[in-house]
Every structure is written in structure tokens, then in C-alpha cells.
């Protein structure tokens, strides 16, 4: 019989001291990463996981277990459901875990229909681990076909903190400046809240998408509105720790929809003290808009494309030898109704020199 250790997530609030000490000792090894990366994968996607391990995850020191560069630390987990797997699949997954120790194995069925549950359970597990010594500030959720620029992302996270989350002034004002890449929206009850008490929800937002009536994204029981609640699209988005905790602690009472990114946006819709950051450097829609060297995350990247991008970066410190924009981006207009939020600058194909 093949056995595999599953990371427990259905943990009661009361645990014995031995269990707590074990978890604190184990998590102390990751040195409280500022960023935890959750990479959604599937049991049979070993090739994709190995490609990620050998490309963008190596943009940090490959010999450093926690990818610690300077004072910014990162820890990643590939998230996989284990229920319903056959003995051979479990054996290969166990062997992979023994070799890399970077898989979060959840006791759920792994399919597109369970992606929302996978995100929920991952957040519950992370929140649980925070109580046992795994301190973190942010979570990046992405997929195993996303390419993340880990050379630049830590600097950009620090820049976001310095720009929006530092107490430069008691009024929430000049700190809410926008750039050529960013448009921001603040939802607070108290306009005098200190910026460091804000939580960020950062990605490429959609607000004008109509409710899907067919296909794998079909939402037959959506009643909130005739459009989705504004959400950061699922190829990659970043949440502050407190937002992860909110979802984790309320998981059983939160309505789940087919699309995990739509669900996250819906769950966080009424939450107070949230700074939403729309960033065109998150190329995270269902298909890529092209290749730009300022991108932080690119979604729907093949294994071959990942290897090419990584090779180009090693040789030139760029990801694109030739920048190409296949579809135009939009800057989210937070002052307009959601149905008018997201108008691309141009529908034409642009090839940049």
C-alpha cells in the first residue's frame, strides 16, 4: 500500500503543546518570508512544476532554500489536491515531495471545478501556519503556467509599501498617487486611518465582464449584479496577510463560484480598509497580451516559452528581445461605473521597436 503525508488543514483551534512546538520549529526554518507564493498546479503537471523550478524560481539564489535576497524573503508552494489519485500518482507525488519539499498537498479532488475550494483551503492552511510561526506579509497566488519576474517583484512590493502604506501624512491624499502603470482605489470607513493599517489587493482588475452563461466559467446561480464584482484576474494577484486571514476565518460562510478569481473579488467586495491596485504590469488574463520587459507576471506561458525567457534573461537581463503587444491593456477607471471601467487604449496589434 502506498501512503503519503497530507498537510493537515482541518485543525481544531485547540492543539497540544507538542504539535505547536513542532510547527513553530518547522516554520522557523523559512525565516518569516515577506512573500508566500501559492502556485496552483495539478497532480500530473510535474513537467510544468520542474520548468517553474528551473526558470523563474531560480531568479533568486538557487542554493538558498528560502530564496532570500537581502532582507526580502520568499517561500513558494505548489498546491495540489490528492483525493481520487491512483497509487502510481501518489507514489510519484510522494517522491517529488521528498526531493523538493515545496508541495502543499490538500485533501480535495483536483479539477477546474475545485479551484475555488483549492484557494480557500490554501488560505486556511497559510493562516493556520501563521499561528505556528510562519510569519508572512503578502501572498501571491498564480498558476503553473505563470512566469513571475522575481528579480523585480520584491523591489516593486517595497515600492508599493513606501508609496501607499507608510504614514507620510494623516490624510489619505498624496499617497494615493497614480503612475503610468497603476490606478488605485481606496475603500475605508475612516478617512483618517493610518496607511500602515491598509491591506492591498493588487493585480490586473476586471469590472466590466458579463456573467458567463456557458462553458467552464458558467455561473448559473450568480445573483449579485449583471456584472462580476471587480476582481483581480487569476493569472496572478497579491493579497495582504489580513485579507488572506479574513477569507480563511470565514471560509465556511463564503459563497464559492466556479472562477476562483471572481470568488476572491466577491468575498473582498465589502471588506473595509482595502487598497485596490490595478497594475498593467500584471499580464494575468486568460491569455497573454504579449511580451513587455516591464511586466511583473505573464500568464499562459508554455514550458518552452518559460525556458526561452529565462535563457534570454540570463544573457541580456531582459525577458523579451523584441517587445510585442498583441492586445492593448487598459487602465482601470475607478471613478466610472464598473461597466465602463476597462476600455483598452487600442484594439490594434502593436509591435514595439
From TrEMBL:
Its main location: Golgi. It is found in: Golgi apparatus membrane. The keyword Transferase applies. InterPro entries: Glyco_trans_31. Pfam families: Galactosyl_T. It is a single-pass type II membrane protein. Its EC number is 2.4.1.-. Keywords: Glycosyltransferase, Golgi apparatus, Membrane, Signal-anchor, Transferase, Transmembrane, Transmembrane helix. Belongs to the glycosyltransferase 31 family. This is Hexosyltransferase. It comes from Molorchus minor.
